[in-house]
Design goal:
Blueprint (H helix, E strand, L loop, with lengths): L1 E5 L6 H13 L4 E4 L16 H11 L4 E7 L6 H15 L3 E5 L18 H20 L2 E4 L6 E5 L12 E4 L3 H10 L2 E4 L11 H21 L8 E5 L13 H14 L3 E5 L11 H11 L5
Parallel strand pairs: 1-2, 1-10, 2-3, 3-4, 4-7, 7-8, 8-9, 9-10
Antiparallel strand pairs: 5-6
Helix pairs in contact: 1-2, 2-3, 3-4, 4-5, 5-6, 7-8
Length: 297
């Protein structure tokens, strides 16, 4: 099992770069950031762009993997996104993972002046977005006419450093999204079952996650792929456990062990932010980063 962190882009780079460098020092497998234009309770405070932040992080680090959790079609187009990702992959020396999802009804959904998409339209757009982005990152020139997204001889030379392209970590729980993960993903991402976040129990969450993994396995079987080929990533903090796993090393080891048994290969924990939903003791957090996974062996 790998341990990664997600660093919200809320600090000016003069201060924020220290966090990314510290994440590398602590030995995290990857450091991700959210790809939003603003987000939830942070809407009225500082919030910087994901891809420029990751580019700066690539220049400030040498080993840690970097990525988004997650990018969505809400304000992205595959043609421009592909160009930026190829550039980021080059600057980082091939250390980028693209977390990608269908998006939601948050601020990103309306900031460009459009009406929020229905769940069906989000799924329709996602089903078109991911395959086109896959082509754009693997082919030198792409032309395609779609219902929502098109490309007219889009050039992406020399392509990604990582071959055939940088990896996709596809966030999905519904059948169509899981099929996209099975066809195009090198990893699958979940935050758990949102229906039980408020009132459910950790035991119910484990059962729900087990069900999601079973559905992923069926989607892989339908495409002729082994589910074991996909990394399985849990973005923590959105299950009924909330922040309890970060209260002590022992608590995290127990949490990680239960989820490793389910088949998860990577856990992502939020870098502590005081006076927020992601508040945690920084010293305990760093001890978890340094010690916890060794206790699972």
């Amino acid at each position: 099992m790998r341990l990664s962190t997600v660093i919200l882009p809320i600090h000016r780079w003069s201060e924020g770069q220290k966090t990314w460098q510290r994440a590398e020092e602590l030995g995290f497998h990857a450091a991700y950031t959210y790809d939003h234009l603003s987000w939830r309770t942070f809407r009225d405070g500082p919030w910087f762009g994901a891809l420029p932040t990751l580019t700066a992080a690539a220049a400030a680090t040498t080993r840690i993997r970097l990525g988004t959790l997650v990018t969505s079609p809400n304000f992205r187009h595959p043609v421009t996104l592909a160009k930026e990702l190829i550039t980021l992959d080059d600057i980082s020396g091939g250390r980028v993972t693209l977390g990608i999802g269908a998006g939601g009804n948050g601020f990103d959904a309306t900031v460009l002046g459009q009406e929020p998409w229905t769940p069906k339209e989000r799924a329709d757009r996602f089903a078109e977005f991911v395959p086109l982005l896959d082509r754009l990152l693997t082919e030198d020139a792409v032309s395609q006419r779609g219902t929502f997204y098109s490309a007219d001889e889009a050039r992406n030379i020399p392509g990604c450093v990582q071959r055939p392209r940088l990896p996709f970590a596809v966030a999905a729980t519904g059948p169509r999204g899981l099929r996209l993960a099975a066809r195009h993903g090198q990893a699958w991402v979940t935050t758990g079952d949102p229906k039980i976040f408020e009132t459910g129990t950790p035991e119910q969450s484990v059962a729900a996650l087990r069900g999601q993994i079973e559905k992923l396995g069926k989607a892989c079987a339908e495409t002729g792929r082994e589910v074991a080929e996909l990394d399985k990533v849990l973005l923590t903090g959105f299950t009924p456990d909330r922040g309890r796993p970060l209260e002590s090393v022992d608590a995290f080891v127990d949490f990680a062990g239960r989820h490793r048994e389910l088949g998860f290969t990577e856990l992502v924990i939020h870098w502590p932010i005081p006076d927020s939903d992601f508040a945690a003791d920084q010293q305990v957090f760093e001890r978890i980063a340094a010690e916890a996974l060794a206790q699972l062996d």
